[in-house]
Write a structure and sequence with these properties.
Strand content: 15-25%
Structural class: alpha+beta
Radius of gyration: 33 Å
Largest sheet: 7 strands, mixed
Strand order of the largest sheet: 10-22-21-20-11-18-19
Low-confidence stretches: 629-634
Bound molecules: adenosine-5'-diphosphate, magnesium ion
Mean pLDDT: 86
Shape: elongated
């Protein structure tokens, strides 16, 4: 048993003896004092000390102070000759229950913190690095980019990288909340924090330990716990005004009626009771705990909420603005056709790939992949990416334009025709149209479900913004049931459009923007709620967004909204419940219908109930279950 438990047990035993003397034996006052006073000091000496220390620090009016004044007051009042009866039992009981209540809160917070850190137990302590054909086990921090590591079945992958050898399945649950394992093989990216399930894999490390997914996720969760929600800040401010007001009211209750009506011991007793019941702990503790548990629940579902404030606002969303590529669609393009005017098709692809090699755009990557090994980025003399249009580069002394019809327009190139099958990427060399490459993307399988779930949760308007062509956007948008579709937008037009949409939102409601962070970090930052399909790679998105959906599944957006609603409701329940019970007991106390025992319930009982209720925010079983993303054949766009 620890010292705290010992103290409470010893104090509790003395208290029981005292109670018997008081109520059964009717012992003398001094004899009772000889039992109750030691009990009181054993149980509450640290509260007394804290109250005095805080006075020294100028932090007078906290719950320790309220409890000290109330209990010391009860002892002193018992000592005056006019007192009807001694109030020793009440004084000790207040202190004992206060301590038990505090212990209970500490345990609740500790347990929540533990379960969050269990969830977040995603960093590995060791990595098996392969150096000169031998495997050494080292600290993951000592492994550099480009080295290869072996990961055994059942082990957590320590660093981000690409598989060079081995076929296996990985469990990404700790990061994405997704319970189905993902099959992986050579060439696939794996991220730290996920678990290798079936067989040994060899991974080429692509990020240092500090920049690895596991480290970054951990950092974000730690940061998020220190950011406060507006309601949380309100409660802190409220306590700062409320406690002095209560103390003042107690003084008035003790003094004014005593002067007017006499019987001052009665009024002092009521004033002391008033102090006990009015302690604001229930709110000061349960409100932050609710957000804390909510953030924990979200991270278990693969949703990173970057602070309590960002958990409060999704519930108020009226409009959701989606970006198309990478958000509603996979953002993984594939070259489906090449049309060349004069040169060989492979030559066309190679030239396009050389120019595109400077860009990180999903379209660029698809063209570079299609060119395979045959292109050579060293011959690119200068290159420039024009957001929302394409790339202009000088390759082997020739100016190459690769992009959409607007880029061709800007370059003064006459081009022939667009194909209907997908996104047309035109190629021009030295101002002459050379042909086009058709790339296509696929709609995410849970995108339509996400849109309808949001509508069911009270979102009134859904908008899709894209730089892509009217035909593709209309096709995708109508298929998903999106209300408004805006196409051929430049990245800057997207932010302007978002601002126009935000100007229309009703007072007190919010607009959410969902993007993948490529070209749209400003919109993510500008929106009331910025949700990034950051995946695990895009730094810009993770920086700019308020909420990051780790597995890119649109069906997690309605989950965020329901979680936010649930947490807000629990916070409100606690505020209403605590204040209602406290005000009721305060009023009854004033008119003499209650005593110190009711006050103890009004403080400790209410706090315990509020804390238990707040812990319900951890429970994710009531939230809608997102369906895992499975690619379907007919979803191409
Ligand atoms: P989205 O809004 O769909 O994310 P972007 O703003 O990134 O689209 O791009 C809009 C359009 O500009 C693309 O559909 C494509 O036609 C063209 N484009 C943009 N970047 C590139 C690039 N690197 N290579 C080729 N085309 C590009
Ligand atoms: Mg984009």
């Amino acid at each position: 048993m620890n010292t705290f438990a010992l103290r409470m047990a010893a104090g509790g035993a003395l208290f029981a003896v005292g109670m018997a003397m008081h109520y059964v034996l009717g012992s003398g006052e001094l004899a009772q004092l000889a039992v109750f006073l030691p009990a009181y000091l054993i149980v509450g000496y640290d509260v007394l000390l804290k109250a005095f220390c805080n006075i020294g620090h100028g932090q007078v009016l906290d719950e320790n102070f309220l409890m000290t004044v109330a209990t010391v007051g009860a002892f002193l009042v018992s000592a005056v000759p006019e007192a009807e009866d001694v109030m020793f039992p009440e004084a000790v009981a207040v202190m004992l229950f206060f301590q038990v209540g505090e212990w209970f809160e500490r345990r609740a917070v500790g347990r929540t913190r533990e379960s969050i850190s269990d969830l977040m137990d995603i960093q590995s302590e060791t990595a098996h690095v392969i150096r000169d054909g031998r495997t050494e086990t080292v600290d993951p921090e000592e492994v550099s980019v480009g080295e290869t590591i072996a990961v055994m079945p059942g082990e957590r992958i320590p660093l981000d990288g690409r598989i060079v050898d081995g076929l296996s399945a990985v469990d990404t649950r700790a990061l994405t909340g997704e319970s189905l394992p993902r099959d992986v093989g050579p060439g696939d990216e794996v991220v730290s924090g996920t678990v290798n399930l079936s067989s040994r894999i060899v991974v080429e490390v692509t990020r240092e330990y500090e920049d690895s997914t596991a480290s970054r996720v951990l950092e974000l969760v730690e940061e998020s716990l220190s950011r406060k929600a507006p309601t949380e800040r309100f409660i802190t401010r409220f306590a700062r005004v409320y406690t002095p007001a209560v103390v003042l009211a107690a003084i008035v209750i003790a003094v004014v009626p005593s002067i007017a009506l006499g019987d001052w011991t009665l009024w002092v007793y009521r004033a002391l009771t008033f102090l006990v019941v009015s302690c604001p702990c229930a709110l000061v503790i349960s409100v932050p705990l609710s957000y804390f548990c909510g953030i924990g629940a979200a991270s278990r579902l693969g949703i990173l909420v970057k602070g309590g404030n960002f958990l409060e606002s999704p519930a108020k969303t009226v409009t959701v603005v989606f970006e198309k590529t990478g958000t509603l669609t996979e953002g993984r393009f594939e070259v489906s056709r090449v049309h060349s005017e004069t040169m060989a098709e492979t030559e066309l692809i190679r030239t396009a790939a050389e120019a595109e090699s400077v860009s990180n755009h999903p379209i660029s990557r698809s063209i570079v992949d299609a060119a395979g090994e045959s292109f050579d980025s060293c011959c690119v003399e200068s290159a420039e990416e024009i957001p929302g249009k394409g790339v202009r580069a000088v390759v082997r002394g020739r100016t190459v334009h690769v992009g959409n019809h607007r880029l061709m327009g800007d370059a003064g190139v006459e081009y022939c025709h667009e194909e209907v099958a997908g996104t047309n990427v035109h190629v021009a060399i030295d101002g002459t149209y050379m042909g086009h490459i058709v790339v296509s993307d696929i709609v995410k399988s849970d995108a339509a479900e996400a849109v309808s779930a949001l509508k069911a949760l009270g979102v009134r308007r859904t908008v899709m913004l894209s730089g892509d062509s009217a035909r593709i956007c209309t096709d995708v948008g109508t298929r998903l049931g999106i209300d408004e579709i805006r196409y051929e937008l430049l990245p800057s037009d997207k932010t302007a459009e978002l601002e126009r949409i935000m100007a229309d939102r009703p007072e007190g409601r919010t607009v959410a923007y969902v993007g993948d962070g490529i070209n749209d970090a400003p919109s993510l930052a500008r929106a009331d709620v910025g949700i990034a399909m950051g995946g695990l790679g895009s730094d810009a998105a993770i920086e700019a967004a308020d909420i990051v959906i780790m597995d890119d599944a649109p069906s997690k957006i309605p989950v965020c909204v329901s979680l936010s609603k649930r947490v807000n409701r629990i916070v409100l329940e606690n505020i209403v419940f605590a204040l209602a019970v406290k005000f009721a007991i305060l009023a009854l106390t004033l008119f003499g219908y209650t005593d110190m025992w009711a006050a103890v319930f009004g403080d400790v009982g209410v706090t315990v109930i509020a804390v238990l209720n707040a812990m319900r925010c951890m429970d994710t079983s009531r939230l809608p279950r997102p369906t895992p993303s499975v690619k379907t054949a007919d979803a191409s766009c």
